[in-house]
Design brief:
By secondary structure, the protein is α/β, with parallel strands linked by helices. It has one domain (33-269): Acetylglutamate kinase-like (Carbamate kinase, 3-Layer(aba) Sandwich). Helices cover 34% and strands 15% of the residues. The protein is built from 10 helices and 10 strands. The chain has helices at residues 3-10, 54-66, 81-92, 97-104, 106-118, 135-140, 170-181, 214-220, 229-235, 254-259, and strands at 40-44, 73-77, 124-126, 144-148, 185-190, 195-196, 208-209, 211-213, 243-248, 266-269. An 8-stranded mixed sheet has the order 3-4-2-1-5-9-10-8, sandwiched between helices. It has a two-stranded antiparallel sheet with strand order 6-7. Helix 7 (170-181) runs parallel beside helix 9. It starts with a helix and ends with a strand.
Length: 270
C-alpha cells in the first residue's frame, strides 16, 4: 500500500478536517437540534423566595402544583444569603475563584433538596448533573425534576472580571440549561416585578422596565441588575433561549401567566 493510500485510510472527511479549533472562521452551515423546547425552565430565587420562608414559598409551590399537569417544568434553585456568606468568608480567606464556586454550589443544592421534600407527594424528584439526561423519562413519569441552579464548573470556573466571585452562578446555570434544552424562554421567580433602573428595595422611586433588549441593557450599564450580568452577555449569543422573564412570585397568578407565555414582569430579549 502506498503512502498516499495509507493516508486516505487514516483521513475522515469532516468540516473540521483541516481546522485547528482555534481559528476564528470555523463554522457549520446547519443549526443545532432543540432537545426539549416545550420545557419551562424556572428558577426559584434563593434570597428573594427561599430565604423568606413559607410565607413566600408555599403560595408559589401551590401555583406550580396547580400547573404540573399542564406543563413540563424543570425547577432550579438559587443560593441566597447563605451563599453570599460563603463567598464572603472564602474571599476573606483568599480562596481562588474555583474554590468559591465549589463552595457556593452547596447552598443552592440544599435549597433544591428542601424543595424536593416539599414537593415529594406531587412527584418532586431531586436530580444532579448526571441525571440531567434522564429528563425525558422523568417527564413521562409525571415527575417534577428539581436541581441546583449552579452550573457544575466548580474548580474550573473562569476568573471573573470584577474580583474573585464566580460570574457563573445560579442565574447562569438556569439560562444555560434552558439554552441546551432549546427552551425559548427562561423564567426567574423573584419577589420583585422584574427589572428596575435601580434597586427598588433601596430606591422606592426606581422606574420599572417591562421590556428591554440585552444590547440596550449592556449599553445602559445599570448600577444594579435583577439577574447576573453574565446572563445578559450569554443572551446576545444564544441560539434558542432568546428571552429571560423575571416575575414576582409573591403576586398570585403571575407565575401561571408566565408559564402560559404571557409577557408579565420584565422580558429581556436578544
Amino acid at each position: 500500500m502506498s503512502d498516499v493510500d495509507q493516508q486516505r485510510q487514516l483521513s475522515i472527511a469532516s468540516a473540521l478536517e483541516d481546522a485547528t479549533l482555534t481559528t476564528s472562521d470555523v463554522k457549520f452551515d446547519y443549526d443545532p437540534v432543540a432537545i426539549m423546547p416545550d420545557v419551562r425552565v424556572m428558577k426559584i430565587g434563593g434570597q428573594s423566595v427561599m430565604d423568606r420562608g413559607r410565607t413566600a414559598l408555599f403560595p408559589i409551590l401551590e401555583e406550580i402544583v396547580a400547573n404540573k399537569d399542564r406543563f413540563h417544568m424543570l425547577l432550579c434553585c438559587g443560593g441566597g444569603t447563605r451563599a453570599r456568606h460563603i463567598y464572603a468568608i472564602g474571599a476573606d480567606l483568599e480562596m481562588p475563584t474555583g474554590v468559591l464556586a465549589a463552595m457556593g454550589g452547596y447552598v443552592p443544592m440544599q435549597n433544591a433538596r428542601m424543595l424536593q421534600m416539599l414537593l415529594a407527594k406531587h412527584g418532586g424528584i431531586f436530580i444532579d448533573e448526571d441525571d440531567f439526561v434522564k429528563l425525558p423519562l422523568y417527564f413521562q413519569m409525571g415527575c417534577l425534576p428539581i436541581m441546583t441552579g449552579m452550573p457544575p464548573f466548580s474548580y474550573w470556573e473562569k476568573p471573573g472580571k470584577n474580583g474573585r466571585i464566580p460570574s457563573n452562578r445560579t442565574d447562569a446555570g438556569v439560562f444555560l440549561s434552558a439554552e441546551f434544552l432549546g427552551a425559548p424562554r427562561a423564567i426567574f421567580v423573584k419577589d420583585e416585578n422584574g427589572l428596575y433602573e435601580d434597586d427598588p428595595k433601596k430606591n422606592p422611586k426606581a422606574k420599572h422596565i417591562p421590556r428591554i433588549s440585552a444590547a440596550e441593557l449592556i449599553e445602559r450599564d445599570l448600577p444594579d441588575l435583577v439577574v447576573e450580568r453574565v446572563v445578559i452577555d450569554y443572551l446576545t449569543r444564544a441560539r434558542f433561549c432568546k428571552e429571560i422573564q423575571i416575575v414576582n412570585g409573591t403576586e398570585r397568578g403571575m407565575l401561571t401567566q408566565a408559564l402560559e407565555g404571557e409577557d408579565v414582569g420584565t422580558i429581556i430579549h436578544a
